[in-house]
Specification:
The chain is of the alpha/beta class and 399 residues long. Helices cover 31% and strands 28% of the residues. The chain has 13 helices and 18 strands. Helix 2 (39-48) runs parallel beside helix 3, helix 4 (88-100) crosses helix 6 (180-192) and helix 11 crosses helix 12. The longest helix has 14 residues, at 282-295. The radius of gyration is 26 Å and the shape is elongated. The mean pLDDT is 93. Bound molecules: magnesium ion (MG).
Length: 399
């Protein structure tokens, strides 16, 4: 196998019709959040974790607006995109055509469902290892599968009409791996004869070419319906694929001279300003402290000391962007953030959306996972007496 490189193609142009067709505006299945990240991101991460895979082509729907966020989160130079088609096999073929321009026809290409994020490292390794066996009578490729363990019934009129002999039956999983040139030809042939295949092995079988069956974990589930998501989340957690970190932060500034306050990067007119070395944005300071806390990186004062003359009057959004970069370099992504402003005045209700937008932009995430809310303290304490304002923030990070 050493002389042939290994590539991967992931068809991700579909809508997932069986998933939740009723939800208007819901993301396509490959982008639904699983443990706080798009499904597709987990799936691609599983492939990128295998160093023998030199490149991954993702076939996307035209005008896919969600992809750039996933690409940014993955930050891999091994990923390329192709324009997907109407059927899964069209998307796979499109990915293969792209590869034919940069790979040898004898190179291996594995095709993996976008909706199988629970692919185990050992299964992927075993699949690739199987390609190196017995060069003399080598099979056309290899695929992951799982022997059927349940008794299988054939249904007729709502009744179990008869029992299907279970011996020798396997469930076809992915990845499935074949020679690039041969698989492309098999899929073109299927297309010419108007045949819809549900996996790549089926297209190869028509040519009398067979994949070696490699026994994979039955936990390599395909997410088909919404109720599969919690199952997949549980599997991912049991595989140790996720690490969660929680963090909280709190910040206070006293009112002083001025005609506005900065909150969440929004300039809000007010009869007073705040006393601060920087722009005194308590929302951003609390949020930075929450993220730094989750990372075990101390606090904002350690990273941006108020003795630093360069930070006088600084735009706090710069702090947040630096903290976000630190978070990413530590391999973490924000799952969600919740911020509470404590103030008698100014009122911030009409600024909440703009604040969430700013925070999301600086953190490089969607505003949907940032919640900003506010409360007074019923005229009690320093906030209640109008001596200053405060904010608290909580974040959850995942890796
Ligand atoms: Mg502060």
């Amino acid at each position: 196998m050493a002389e042939h490189r290994v590539w991967a193609v992931v068809p991700a142009a579909g809508r997932g019709a069986r998933f939740d067709a009723s939800a208007v505006g819901a993301p396509p299945k490959q982008y639904v959040p699983l443990l706080g990240r798009p499904l597709l991101e987990w799936t691609l991460r599983a492939l990128l974790d295998e160093p023998r895979i030199v490149g991954v082509v993702v076939a996307l729907a035209a005008g896919d607006e969600r992809w750039p966020e996933v690409a940014r989160a993955l930050g891999s130079t091994r990923i390329a995109t192709a324009l997907g088609g109407a059927e899964r096999q069209d998307s796979v073929l499109s990915g293969l055509e792209l590869l034919l321009g940069r790979a040898a026809p004898g190179d291996w290409v594995l095709v993996h469902d976008a909706a199988r994020p629970c692919l185990a490292r050992e299964d992927l390794a075993a699949l690739l290892d199987a390609l190196g066996d017995a060069p003399g009578d080598a099979p056309a490729g290899a695929m992951l599968g799982a022997p059927v363990v349940d008794t299988v019934k054939r249904e007729r009129d709502g009744c179990a009409a008869d029992t299907v002999e279970r011996a020798g039956l396997w469930r076809a999983l992915t990845p499935q791996v074949f020679r690039l040139g041969e698989l492309a030809e098999a899929l073109r042939e299927a297309k010419r004869s108007g045949l819809i295949v549900t996996d790549e092995a089926q297209a190869m079988e028509r040519r009398g070419r067979h994949a070696r069956l490699v026994r994979g974990s039955p936990l390599n589930v395909k997410i088909t319906r919404a109720e599969d998501l919690p199952v997949a989340a549980g599997i991912m957690e049991s595989m140790g694929r996720t690490t969660m970190r929680i963090g909280q932060g709190f910040d206070v500034h006293t009112f002083g001279e001025g005609d506005h306050v900065m909150l969440g990067g929004v300039r809000i007119p007010h009869g007073r300003g705040v006393v601060a070395h920087s722009d005194g944005d308590v929302v951003i300071h609390a949020l930075c402290d929450a993220v730094l806390g989750a990372l075990g990186e101390g606090d904002i004062g350690r990273h941006f000391p108020d003795t630093d003359p360069r930070l006088r009057g600084a735009d706090s959004r710069m702090f947040l962007r630096e903290v976000a970069a630190l978070m990413r370099s530590a391999g973490f992504a924000l799952i969600n953030a919740d911020v509470t402003v404590l103030a008698e005045a100014p009122r911030i209700a009409q600024h909440r959306a703009a604040m969430a937008e700013n925070l999301a932009e600086d953190l490089g995430v969607s505003p949907r996972i940032i919640n900003v809310k506010a409360t007074t303290t019923e005229r009690m304490g320093f906030v209640g007496r109008g001596e200053g304002l405060a904010a608290s923030a909580a974040v959850l990070l995942g890796a």
